[in-house]
Write a structure and sequence with these properties.
The chain is an alpha/beta fold. It folds into 2 domains: 120 residues, Rossmann fold; 198 residues, 2-Layer Sandwich (Dihydrodipicolinate Reductase, domain 2). Helix content is 33%, strand content 25%. The strands form 2 sheets. It has an 8-stranded mixed β-sheet, with helices on one face. Strands 3-2-1-4-5-6 form a 6-stranded parallel β-sheet, sandwiched between helices. Helix 5 links the parallel strand 5 and strand 6. Helix 1 packs across helix 8 and helix 4 packs parallel to helix 5. The chain is globular. The chain starts with 19 loop residues before the first strand and ends with a helix.
Length: 340
């Protein structure tokens, strides 16, 4: 099967506007985010803060960041910081985002933006009131492959969308006090991994009309396994499977009424995708940058800088209302599961 794919439309990583970034909570995701941003873009992190001054200092030294602090308040008050990246555990997102917004800073908040739609709505309302840019860090939306897929869906290359599915599961070592399993830290598969699979369904089909969830709870009461079926009317559905008890391929698909199916693995990170006919024949698009996995975190940073320079207060690729709608779906799925 031959197919002429459109060109990706991601924001260029270099040559555009650059922001001065501050990082709150320098953990594992922040480490990979800063490494990717410094390696692949013109964006620069100029300050980092942690509850531990020693941890912030070590992080700064590792990444060549000029200033470090043991005070979040000190960082958001820094006039040399334009935008704050919040990489704390889920339950801290609301507090730290509101702290940065109150100081007049733009914010990029790790996903999920809050542990509930209500938490995220407070951040959204505060950012809109302050007139600052705010976005959930849904990095997968900004990858080159995703921009092509968006174009294919918008142009009707698959016909009407008949259904979609996504799976993201990984085996987590059980520790009741860990970020994954402790309800006080926003644990559970839906908030950690389901934000990706449910984003994919929303990306393909928009806000669902119905949500039906089944699964298993961990001993701590958080969802260890969640299967969610979303509906759009009577004839269109999408499935989402997330789990912290098993390793499964990180894959997504969307099928159309004209017999074409698009499959992406991994759908959350740089790679490529396959477009094929249900009765046989495939065409492939491959990411030729050589980027893999969390290298792709850099694209969202360049997009934020472009949107801020253009005077936007949210990203058209991943609007704040989309964040709230996905979290509302997670809220309902967790409610049906009885998750803590």
């Amino acid at each position: 099967m031959s197919f002429a794919f459109p060109a990706p439309t991601h924001v260029p990583l270099r040559g555009g506007p650059a922001l001065r970034w501050g990082v709150l909570a320098p953990g594992g995701i922040a480490n990979d985010w800063v490494a990717a941003v410094h390696r692949f873009t013109d964006q620069r992190v100029v300050a980092v803060a942690s509850r531990s001054a020693e941890k912030a200092e070590a992080f700064a030294g590792r990444h060549g960041i000029p200033r470090s602090s043991g005070s979040y308040e000190q960082l958001v008050a820094d006039p040399e910081v334009d935008v704050v990246y919040i990489a704390a555990p889920h339950t801290e997102h609301r507090r730290l985002a509101l702290l940065a917004i109150d100081a007049g800073k733009h914010v990029l908040v790790e996903k999920p933006m809050g542990v509930s739609a209500a938490d995220a709505a407070e951040i959204v309302a505060a950012a809109r009131m302050a007139g600052v840019f705010a976005m959930e860090a849904m990095w997968s939306r900004f990858l080159p492959q995703t921009t092509i897929i968006r174009r294919l869906l918008d142009d009707g290359e698959l016909g009407e969308i008949a259904g979609a599915a996504a799976t993201f599961a990984g085996r987590f070592e059980y520790d009741p006090h860990s970020r994954a399993f402790d309800p006080a830290l926003g644990g559970g598969s839906l908030l950690d991994l389901g934000v990706y699979t449910l984003w994919w369904a929303h990306f393909c089909l928009g806000r669902p009309d119905s949500v039906s969830a089944t699964g298993e709870l961990a001993p701590t009461g958080v969802d260890a396994d969640a299967r969610v079926v979303l509906g759009w009317g009577e004839d269109v559905s999408a499935s989402s499977h997330t789990a912290m008890t098993v390793d499964l391929p990180i894959t997504a698909m969307v099928a159309g009424t004209n017999g074409l199916k698009l499959e992406v693995e991994p759908f959350v990170a740089p790679g490529g995708f396959r477009l094929g006919r249900l009765d046989g024949g495939n065409a492939y698009w491959e990411d030729e940058t050589g980027m893999r996995w969390r290298d792709g975190l850099c694209y969202q940073a360049a997009a934020v800088a472009r949107h801020v320079a253009d005077g936007r207060t949210e990203a058209p690729e991943h609007p704040l209302d989309t964040t709230l709608e996905i979290l509302a779906t997670i809220d309902e799925a967790r409610r049906q599961l009885g998750a803590a």
